[in-house]
Amino acid sequence: MENVSLESQLTSILRTKNLIALFQPIIDLRRASVYGHEALIRGPVGTELHSPLALFEACQLPGLAPEMEHLSREIVLQQYAKSTDKNKLFVNISPLCLQLNDSPFSFNCEQLDYLGLTPSDIVIEITEGSLIKDFEKLRDTVNRYREMGFAIALDDMGEGFSGLRLWSEIAPDYVKIDKHFINNIHNDPIKLEFVRAIQKIASESGCLSIAEGVETAEECQFLRLLGIRLMQGFLFSEPLFEACGEIETINWLDC
Question: Which of 10-19, 20-29, 91-100, 123-132 has the lowest mean pLDDT?
């Protein structure tokens, strides 16, 4: 009965489009400005599906993940298009959904056209939410999107086992360092060396690294010493209901 009830909730969310779009700023410390935003999604407030992790895990069993991911993109793009002062938007897409070329849930330029957006506005942020079985197929898909004008980011570097292989296969424009390795980095020499190695590879391959989950000035200072200029986290801003060009609450001198 619990599974039936959960599936009923998911069906209701899809029918009513009851999702909330949020935007977490990505900060360029070198220029002391907002570089872009990561699009985030939340389920209905006050329910067990409010958390994105719970929401998408619940979608797996009934096979509703592609439909839920498609709806999430639709909602964040609509909200982003209303913003008056926009930067690049990082949109999470799973490898599975990225390769749904002939599906009604595929990601395509038609989703952008009617909103007045272009591929150059969007960074496709590939998540490690599903097992990658065919790297060659995924590489071909990524190259096709890149030819359309999209930039490519690899999410949560260091979290899973396929990250380094995927990095070498798709040559992303951005690599986002998982928050586990950022947390307390100034007191953890292993994390420090791990992040140093990621930054070295990124620099030598022409890729920009983004530190996720930056929460303290000490973390920020150590990351800057490693040459990382792009960061996101609660130190700078919580997720916002609207993409913005400036954040007045940042004390840039802290970093």
Answer: 123-132
Orientation of helix 52-60 relative to helix 65-82, angle to 10°: 150
pLDDT in tens, 23-46: 999 999 998 899 999 999 999 998
Angle at 251 between CA 245 and CA 255, to 5 degrees: 105
Q: What is the pTM of this model?
A: 0.91
C-alpha pair distances (Å), 49 with each of 12, 13, 58, 159: 12, 10, 8, 23
**Scanning the structure block, which residue is given the tokens 């599903």?**
130
Distance, CA of 94 to CA of 125 (rounded, Å): 8
The runs of H, that is alpha helices, within the chain are 2-16, 52-60, 65-82, 95-98, 110-113, 135-148, 163-170, 179-182, 189-204, 217-225
Q: List the Cα angle 215/220/226 in 5-degree steps.
A: 140
Q: What is the pLDDT of residues 89-104, one digit of tens each?
A: 999 998 888 888 777 6
Rounded-to-integer distance, Cα 148 and Cα 142, Å: 10
What distance separates the 2 farthest-apart alpha carbons in the chain?
Answer: 55
For strand 230-231 and strand 20-28, is the pairing parallel, antiparallel, or unpaired? antiparallel
Backbone φ, ψ for residue 250 (5° rounding) = -75, 130
Both tokens of 83, joined, read 């913003």
Q: Hey, CA dihedral for 118, 122, 128, 133, is it positive or negative? A: positive
